[in-house]
Structures are given as C-alpha cells and as structure tokens.
TrEMBL record, chain A:
Statement: the UniProt record of this protein carries the keyword rRNA-binding: no
Full protein name: YeeE/YedE family protein
GO cellular component terms listed in the entry, alphabetical order: plasma membrane
Bilayer topology annotation: Multi-pass membrane protein
PANTHER family, sorted: INNER MEMBRANE PROTEIN YEDE (PTHR30574), SULPHUR TRANSPORT DOMAIN-CONTAINING PROTEIN (PTHR30574:SF1)
Keyword terms of this UniProt record: Cell inner membrane, Cell membrane, Membrane, Transmembrane, Transmembrane helix, Transport
Major place of residence: membrane
TrEMBL record, chain B:
Pfam hit, one: DUF6691
Protein name: Uncharacterized protein
Transmembrane annotation, as ranges: 41-61, 82-100, 106-128
Key words of the record: Membrane, Transmembrane, Transmembrane helix
Amino acid sequence: MNTTIVFQSLLGGTLIGVAAVLLMLTLGRISGVSGITSGLLSLSIKKDDFWRIAFILGLVSGPLLLGLVGGEIPEIVVDTRLPYLIAGGLLVGFGATLGSGCASGHGVCGIARISPRSLLATGIFVAAAVATVFFTRG
Amino acid sequence: MKTFSAFIAGAIFSIGLTVSGMSNPENVIGFLDIAGDWNPALMLVLLSAVVVTGIGYRLAWKRTQPLFDEDFFVPTSRILDGRLMTGSAIFGIGWGLVGLCPGPALSSVVSGNSSIYVFIIAMIGGMIMQRNLTAFIDGQNKAVSA
C-alpha cells in the first residue's frame, strides 16, 4: 500500500462521512443504501419516495460529476461468473433487508452511532464475507 | 430543498466510494482475502468515514430538528435478534461472492459494466423476496397465535 492509496482511502472515507452527516443534518436520515432502496419497493407512492429517489440518483451520477471536475473514474472489474453474480446479488438484497442494513447503514452510520446492533451486524457480515472469499477464491 | 439535499448527499457518498476505490470489487475482495495478498485500504476508508460521521452526527444532533424535516429518524432498537444475525450472515456471503454491496453497485452504474446491472437486478429481486417471505411468515405466526 503506497501513500497515494492511503491518501485516496482517507479522502474517500472522509467524503462518505461528510455525505452521511449532510443527510442527517438536512433530512435527519441514516445513509443506509439498502434501506433507502428497499423503502422504494412498495407499490404505493409515498411522500418519502422523493428524497429516496434523489439520493439514489445522486449515487448513480456521482462518478459523472467527478468526471466533470476532472477527477479520474477508475475502471470497475467484476470477475465473478454469472451464476455466482446472480446468487451474490440475491443474497446481498435478501440479507441486507432481513438484517436491516448493509455496509453503509450498519458499517458506517451504525458504528458511528455506536449502535450495538450495527456493531454485531458488521462483525457478522465481515466474518461471513471473509469465510466466503476463503472458500471460493482460496 | 429536501430532494436537492438528498441528491447532493448521494452524489458526495458516491464520489467518496469512487475516490477511495471501494466501488471496485477487486479492492473489496482484496480486503476480505486475509489468507491471500491482503489489502487493508477498506479499513482506512471505513475508519475515516466512521470518525467523520461520528463527530458530525453529534454536532447535528445538537439541533432540535434537522434543517428540512421535523425530526431525526434514527433507529432506537437495541435488540440483538435472529433476524439481524441471519440477515447479516446472508448479506456477508453475497458480499464475499462478488465483492459488491448496494452502495458501490449503484455508484458503478455509469461504468456501463453489464455485470453491475445483473447484480443490481438480482439484489432488488432479493429485497422483494425478503419482504414477501417475512410478510408471509408474520402472517402465519399471527394465524397460529390467533
């Protein structure tokens, strides 16, 4: 790990934190991407849908805005085969809604609040992911 | 203003994921692969994000209400139940299989990588399955106790 990567990691992490604080300060909401997304998946249209859609549009267009100011958009490499890709997506969606959060909601916002639920959730999903990588890529 | 603030927060969040390299599954797998060539970058990203969020939340909560809403909507439950643990374990397995989770997947949509689209569609499918299954089980339990 060289100094550039350390700098990019700390800068990126700080920006993630700034975004989470901004959403709390303005709307009083947790920046949990799975919760914000799954909140949209009911058939009825709710007042809350608008900010959820706006947050997701922001997420999607972030790299474009970064490109506009001259930032470098890194290449995305997904080397997972199709069956595992589909299984992974299903498990991530199912698990995050059942466990009330993903890496952003539990991992960032929850640990920052020192929530016992989020600390436990993060410990469990990191352990499960480490074990999965060990058995599938070892 | 609510919608605009949410958009800006989403955009900054996504730029953070992109700048840190965490929208790239290779870097996430590199962190999870402790037996291989371990890449600790994710830990630095999480650490800095948690410190900034922790300090910022406490400053924000000094206000009686958020700028554009009437209340802070913060989960208050402290119950460590089976759903939390099972859900997190299932999420972790999926995360380890691909190296993607909801935030990075959505912030990589513009990469045009078709694997990202497959993952997002499957993820939304998983969320809908969970909702229906939980509603079904709750319905069954209610029927039994009634």
